[in-house]
Amino acid sequence: MADLKNNLSVLAEAYGNPRARLDYYLGQGKKVIGCFPPYTPEELVHASGMIPMGLWGGQTELMRAKSYLPAFACPIMQSDMEFGLSGAYRGLSAVIIPALCDTLRCMTQNWRFGVPGIPMIPIVYPQNRRSPASVDYLISEYESVLTMLSTITGQMMNEQALCRSIEIYNEHNAVMREFAQTANEHLDIVTPRVRHAVMKSAFFYEKSEHSAIVREIIAELKKLPAYAHPGKKVVLAGIMCEPDELLGIFEENDFAVVGDDLAQESRQYRTDTPAKGGGSLRRLALQWNCRTGCSLIHEDGKPRGEMLASLCRLSGASGVISCMMKFCDPEEYDQPYYEGDLRSAGFPCLSIEIDQQNTSYEQARTRIETFREML
Amino acid sequence: MYTLGIDIGSTSSKAVILRDGTELIVQKVVSLGTGTVGPSQVLSAVFEESGLSPDQIGYTVSTGYGRMNCAQADEQVSELSCHAKGIHFLLPDAQTVIDIGGQDAKALKISESGQLIAFQMNDKCAAGTGRFLDVMARVLNVDISELGELSQRSKKPVSISNTCTVFAESEVISQLSSNVPIEDIAAGIHNSVAKRVAGMALRLGRPTAPAMSGGVARNAGVVRAMERELGCPVLVHPLCQSAGALGAAILAWEKLKKEKVN
């Protein structure tokens, strides 16, 4: 139990102070690459001998970012821009920006102009994934990223290193999936805030280090007797669900999170890079083509509703909380479809707005409390 | 057995005492909300009028924006659940409830048995709320209670923005400076509120026997505008403003009954 508490607090500390993690790696003489969300090809950074670190914004007062982004832009991008402009990301050797939505597309240019001290590496993913050309195209995008990374390291990554990195990332995916499952038997320990801290801390660790810590957490949890949660269980959908104040309201209302479809949490761990299919870059490209149920990736049909309903059935959740990122067009487009599917499947859905810059949670509290009463 | 429901809103406090969950003993409204003397005044008023003392109350449920700050409450319940309960008691046929409060607006879908099954709330914005009407009444230099009657005399309502209270205020000032009749501006203001809230209510599907609750339901101009937007009559009970407190008192009674059974 002491190890469990210690490991959880280590990850909570990393989640609460990413700057300390960045300084730690810089202190070891390592180069760190900032990875904008989501689906940045971290494996390429890892295989190049550098540390990929997630840049998912944070709570900060927006001042300088307003010169670059309109008020109705994604809060994650607003705070990433603010952090970039204010020097909070000092020490990063570069950032990679995947142009997956309109705001991210603009961010590539905003960053280049506003934060010239930290080079920007763009990547554009193919949306027509049925065409075989999409794989060749994505390989060429990955090659461009690698070329730019090589200007930082002074050498080109090799195939063996990428194979090893893919292995490490696939292992990490599996560990995180196992953690999510194991956590459901121990909801007294893995509260919504603890679960989020374990999930988000992954962005601030080299992945094999993170896997090692989470493996220990899983092993310790498995030694404990299963806990029967007396309150309601829910699944979270959306891009992210934070800050802690909001997750604290879930806890006040005896809600436990037993599954999620959050881009910042389980969504990224659902799809492994296939073991076969060609060289490592081709396998990575095939992983992109295998991803499903994501608002940022074009797909025929809308499988997300059924995916969420199935997750509810498997995890024993009574409903879904849709964590709607403020001003997120792709998520807003998906929401009516999956909400309708969930209603038909008998799972009520609550929508709450996620805004990293929010300081008042009374409206969210009323919604969450009412949802509990409704369930 | 007596139960007490207290609804501490952002602009007013309401209290209801019920006997055995069905008989209304007293209901009072004080136009002062959370963080003021409103809650204590409304409690004093219901005890004074009913002749009851606090120790005769079996269970108290508080609701509304200030529900957490009510020392007398045994339990806090969200205002959405309480309005659903209160309106089902007052208007059993209603299956859609629109509650426009001082600070936010809500649309509720309730089952035939009065169970809350879905809801929508406005964003963090004063447009479409009682606060919007307060601001507009001040700009027009009329009392908020006169706004409804004023709009009935309108011949040609103007169009007022329903997206932002601050923008709408500027629009109203420019209409006033263009000598647009005040009645037409008042009607435009009501249409603006109704359009915004009806849009929210329609997200729950086509309304079934809609009813309005909350203080704004007493404004006939808003109710008429809402009927036009929804395309059907809207039910309003004379106790609409106290529906939340009434629902809280009913829930308090249900809690007592449950405790007795256990």
The N- and C-terminal alpha carbons of chain B lie at a distance of 17 Å
Could you say which overall geometry of chain A the principal axes of the C-alpha atoms support?
globular
Give average pLDDT of chain B, whole number.
90
> Could you say how many structural domains of chain B there are in total?
2
How would you name the oligomeric state of the polypeptide chains in this document? Answer: heterodimer
Per CATH, the class of the largest domain in chain B reads Alpha Beta
Number of helices of chain A: 14
Cα-atom radius of gyration of chain A:
20 Å
Instruction: Please report the two chains with the greatest interface, counting residues with C-beta closer than 8 angstroms to the partner's C-beta.
Output: A-B, 11 and 14 residues
Average predicted confidence as pLDDT of chain A: 95
- What's the CATH first level of the largest domain in chain A? Alpha Beta
CATH superfamily of the largest domain in chain B: ATPase, nucleotide binding domain
Strand order of the largest sheet of chain A: 2-1-3-4
Report the order of strands and helices of chain B. EEEHEEHEEEHHHHEHEH
The largest sheet of chain A is: 4 strands, parallel
Strand content of chain A: 5-15%
